[in-house]
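Task 17 of the worksheet. Students: predict the tertiary structure of the chain below and write it out as structure tokens. Keep your answer in the requested format; marks are given for formatting as well as content.
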Amino acid sequence: MRGALRRFRPNRIAEEPRERGELTSRAVVSVGTSTAAFVGAPAAGAPSQPVELTSFVDYERAFGSTNGELGRAVRLFFENGGARAWAVRGSHELADGLRALGGVPFSLLALPDSGGLDPEEAARLAVAANETCERRQAFLLVDPPASLAPPDVEAWTGDIGPASNAAVYVPRLRLADGSETAASGAVAGVIARTDRERGVWRAAAGSTAAVRGVADVTVTLPEEEVDRVTTAGVNVIRRLPRGLVVWGARTLALAQPEWRYVNVRRLALFLERSIREGTRWAAFEPNDDALWSEVRGAVDEFMLTLFQQGAFGGRTPEDAYFVRCDRSTMTQDDIDAGRLIIRVGFAPIPPTEFVSLRIG
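Model answer:
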């Protein structure tokens, strides 16, 4: 199975070109995967610019009141294992907050107040948020309208369209004080915890994906309903004998089998961002065999380390991944135009099939 990301032109770094003799080996380093951005509804006196948070105390200091969907989502993020986040409120509407994210670095995006919108408005916002995530190589955690019962969410996601960088989670969560809240904050925390403890390539779902700081779910789905909606791409939070867990790791890209699973898609985004950032030094270098060889070596070393950590399927590196950067990945026009194109393939878990990335 092969899926290709779009083709990129190289980033031109503001630095003086190096002489060929100065070219040295460069390592590709893993980028972060679990910084979350939370966008909330407008509120009087709240900051209209993103605020960096490393604890819920930071949120209390910046935003004052902890009531409302944004405060509850941020609290659940940190209670479930999140370590770093950004929060912003829209100046007039939620979409303003989305635009205010600007150059803020994030890998996960949640708009918990979207649960209070009508279905049509919530779908429009989700489409805009997904477009933001596609541009930023981030992943969107969708909160459907609270007015929709879990079985109705499946039809509603059709208004968002196929989205490989998005996943939806139901039902809403009930807190100890009897109030209810969107699921995205808790799910973002579970994902961040899973990334840290098991790796971005592991699905934040199943018995290890416990949801903390929550009394219960607002709706309990029967077993057959859980299976049906999960197969349709709607992920369920459910109660097992050991407590509440995230059950399901499907994206909204059912028509793209290579991106069907959240962990596979997020691993691909992680690889692309890491390799892109780790090869920026190649800008202005002569686009020739010497450069291609060095780039292949740096990327291969990065991929081998991930293989040794268990990121890919396959018993050997040759079974698990490939790295290409040569005349098979670039035309003469690409070379003449200064486009350096790297093709990376990996065997995800699951499914153990190759997914191909094209990175320039």
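Marker's comment: The CA atoms of residues 66 and 163 lie 32 Å apart. The chain has two domains: 1-28+280-360, 36-259.
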